[in-house]
């Protein structure tokens, strides 16, 4: 008989949000793999839980090396509980490698549902939540970050990102450039904590606000691209969409044709917009 891997969601702020099953699993687990053992200790103290299982660290730096060890423990019949600092393991946190390895060995994987920064931010954002994409953290380098954002510029679903507070202003500015300055968004800070704040507005205004300095855990929710029609797209937007496709590797002719088809416009109109933009910038159109 193999064991069971239990992924346990932990509070993202208020410890009172911990599900009752979390305390029971912490007390019963034979092995607890924790992203930060000191945070685990504080959590168990807050919940009044006495753990008897072996506690091991499981974080980004040792995830690859420790996964085989934990899989063997699971294969031997143990119940292993995986917890991260906050939220659900394997969602922008350690855990995916262990889950994949356990599934490959036909080891049972289950979960203790718990608080989620992604779902909480979506719920309070005031933006559409019927369809959404979780994009995790953006690249740290400016060029890579802008490129990643341009890839989703036409995404109709609501977008959710995590970000570090010291990069928030640069990220919001890049979003305004790639997605449009008036695209609506919500910056959710310190969710469920004492100083919880949700700042809503267009991306350019949020970028100016963040430039003054923001602290805490950050989740960004961004409105999806609007349904495009001929009346919705000005020449600058047509040019931007052509540029996005070119940067993704399409030839200009194919990019213009695709944008024209999306917008329901003649290809000549899109071509003329590209030519005008290039002339205005002092560059010859190819």
- Strands of the widest sheet, in order across it, are 3-2-4-1-5
Number of contiguous helices: 11
Structural class, judged by helices and strands? alpha/beta
- Major sheet: 5 strands, parallel
Name the helix and strand elements from N-terminus to C-terminus, one letter apiece: EHEHEHEHEHEHEHEEHEHHH
Percent of residues in β-strands: 15-25%
Beginning-to-end CA distance, first to last residue: 67 Å
Task: Estimate percent helicity.
Answer: 40-55%
**Overall body shape:** elongated
Extract low-pLDDT stretches: none
Radius of gyration: 23 Å
Mean pLDDT: 93
Describe the protein in words.
By secondary structure, this protein is an alpha/beta fold. It contains eleven helices and ten strands. The strands form two sheets. The chain has a five-stranded parallel sheet with strand order 3-2-4-1-5, with helices on both faces. Strand 6 (132-137), helix 6 (142-151) and strand 7 (158-163) form a beta-alpha-beta unit. Helix 9 packs across helix 11 (267-280) and helix 10 (252-263) packs across helix 11 (267-280). The radius of gyration is 23 Å and the shape is elongated.
State the main characteristics:
286 residues; alpha/beta; 10 strands; 5-stranded mixed sheet
